[in-house]
Each structure stands twice: as structure tokens, then as C-alpha cells.
Amino acid sequence: MKNASLRHSAAVAASLCALACAFTSTTANAQQKTSLSVYTALETDAMRLYKEAFEKANPDIEVRWVRDSTGIVTARLLAEKANPQADVVAGLAASSLELLKQEGMLQAYEPKGFATLNAGYSDTARPPSWVGMDVWAATICFNRVEAQKLGLPKPETWKDLTKPVYKGRISMPHPASSGTGYLDVTAWLQMWGESDGWKFMDALHQNVAQYVHSGSKPCQQAATGEFPIGISFEFRAHQVRKAGAPVDLIFPKEGLGWDVEATGIMKTTKKPAEARRFADWMASREANQIHANWWAVVAYPGVAKKLDGIPDDYEQRFARNDFNWSAKNRARILAEWSSRYESKVAGR
Fold first, then answer.
1. Is 136-257+327-344 a domain of CATH 3.40.190.10?
2. GO molecular-function annotation terms (predicted)?
3. Number of CB atoms found within 10 A of residue 51's CB
4. Of the N and C termini of the chain, which has fewer Cβ atoms inside 10 Å?
5. Is residue 161 within 8 Å of residue 240, measured between CB atoms?
């Protein structure tokens, strides 16, 4: 009996030791995970897929997203310049990242596989301070059912939207809070010149019912019929159309404002090795295959798929876009826009 008792005690001790070792190992692995703070304006639909795929490929790193709309993230990063909290910025507009670059806040880094990417969608400097992921462009969401009820013709151009028939029927994103709103404004100013660009926006303002704080919301409003016309972008337009909303996608003939979702590493990160691994992965074919779930144009050639409602010559419709100019003139443009149109901002 004594020997049996000893054997039982030894077995229990061994089991406890195994459990303790396993717990210690698990705790050690958890402690070894590096938390990477990533500021983003990515659509919430996409964030989970990026996090899961990156962490599967890099199990020792945990992505901690800090998300808001483009303008809010940009303002927060600039406000934190003296004490930066982000390690990486991903899924933010290239026009915003170019501004951060001009402020000396980004670390130049060429990720692995960069030579494979379409260079036209990344910083022109070498090494680049920001690297493109995908492109998004202006799209008008037009609810054909509501429009028919109201007797509204289908617009084909930006300038069509200034016709009196559309008075009070249009919603548009606020350019200070929405990257989509800002790409619209800067595209109009670059396409027509500043004098004619502001004249167009003055006329458009007469027909705008509301400026909202999201690039997605105008298309969602068009989908529900709140306003039959929403100036938005193709990701959300494609999504609401796919969900069955009676929305037509219109790509105005004069040209489309566009921007690039991109990745950049903060110069002040205390985790440079992990930040570079994140940048490497975001430039990979695997990441670009995730981009292609929603975007008709991605940085990795040959990965994008045909999306319903997006024309084959989509890229050829992009207007001229100088990111450097958009970044340098951001404060001036937003101040002028606000002085003219702030009265119709949602919630004011």
C-alpha cells in the first residue's frame, strides 16, 4: 500500500509539474508577443481579415488597431507629433501620409517585394516613406427607384449635379473628416483650377442637403432613399449594390478624384523590427489578395478582380492627382471650404 501511495503521489506531482510547465510556457509565449499600435482608417469590414492573416504569419506580434475616419486619424497623428503613440499607419490616405512625411514623422523604408508593386501608387522617393495598398475613387451612388418617384434624371457629369432639379437631393462627405470628401475637393480644384473649382462647389452647395462625416454614409443614405444621390466611393457603392439596394454607380465623365490607402512606419516607433515586418506583409501578395476583396485596383499587379459595376477602364478615368500639392495645401483648402459650406454640416 505504501509503494502504491508513493507511486500515486509521484504521478500527481508529475501531472502538476506538467501543468505548471505548460502554463509557464503559455504565459511566456503571451509575454513574448509584441503589441503593435496601428492607426488606421480602414473600413471595419476589412480590419479583422488583415489582423487575422498578419498574426497567423507573425504569431509573436499582436496588431492593436486605433481606427477612425481619415481626417480624424490625420488630425490625431499631427496632434500627437510631440509624443507619438502609433508605431505604424496603415490604410490611411496617401495625401495624409504625404503630409506626415513633410512633417518629418515617417521612417523611409522599402519593404520586401516592393519592386513587384505598381510604383505609381507609392511615394516617389527611394526608399519610400509610404507604400500603396489599394486605390479608391469617387463614385456617385444614384437610387434609381427614389429618383423615378421624384422625377430626377440620372446625372452623367459632376456639373450635372449643379442643376436646380437636384436641390436638396444630394449628400456629400465633409473633406476635413473624410478622405473621400478631401479627394473630391482636391480633384475638382486640380481638374478645373482653383477659381473654377470653387465656383463649381458654390453651385453644388446649393443642391447639397447635408455634408456628413464619413465617405461611406452618402452611399448608405442613397441606398435607403434618405437622399437619392450620394457622393461616395466605389468600395461602399459596390457593397450596397451587392446587398441588393437599387443603386446605380456613376463615374462622372470629367474625371474621378482618387487616393491610395497606404502604409507607413512612424519614425519614433520603439518597435522598428516588428513595424518593418508589418510593412513587409502589407506589401505582400497575400495582403493584396485581401485588398482585392473590395478594391478594383490594388498595388500588386495581376491580383485585382473584376467587381460588379466597376468599368473596365476605371483607372483611365482617374483625374490628375498631385499628392504633394494636396498635402501642402490641406490646411488652406479646408479652411476655405469651411468658410463657405460649414452651415450644412450634419449635426450642426
1. yes
2. thiamine binding; thiamine pyrophosphate binding
3. 15
4. N
5. no
Q: Which of 286, 345, 313 is nearest to 54 (CA)?
A: 286
Cβ neighbors of 236 (< 8 A, separation 6 or more) are: 43, 141, 215, 216, 219, 220
Cell numbers for 180: 473621400
Q: Is 312 exposed, middle or buried (0-12, 13-18, 19+ CB in 10 A)?
A: exposed
Sign of the CA dihedral with 130 first, then 132, 133, and 137 last:
positive
Tell me if 34-135+259-311 shares its fold with 136-257+327-344. yes
Joined grid coordinates for residue 313: 477602364
**Are the CB atoms for 203 and 337 separated by under 8 Å?**
no
Measured CA to CA, the distance from residue 216 to residue 120 in angstroms comes to: 25
| DSSP letter for each residue of 100-133 | HHHTT-EE----TTGGGS-GGGS-SSSS-S-EEE
Q: Where are the domains of the chain?
A: 34-135+259-311, 136-257+327-344
Backbone Cα Rg of the chain: 24
Name the band, by pLDDT with cuts 50, 70 and 90, for residue 31. low
- Pairing assessment for the beta strands 297-298 and 61-67 based on DSSP bridges: unpaired
Beta strands (DSSP E) in the chain are: 34-40, 61-67, 88-93, 106-107, 131-143, 170-173, 208-212, 229-233, 247-250, 258-266, 297-298
Domain 34-135+259-311, CATH class in plain words = alpha beta
Q: pLDDT tens digits, residue range 129-144?
A: 999 999 999 999 999 9
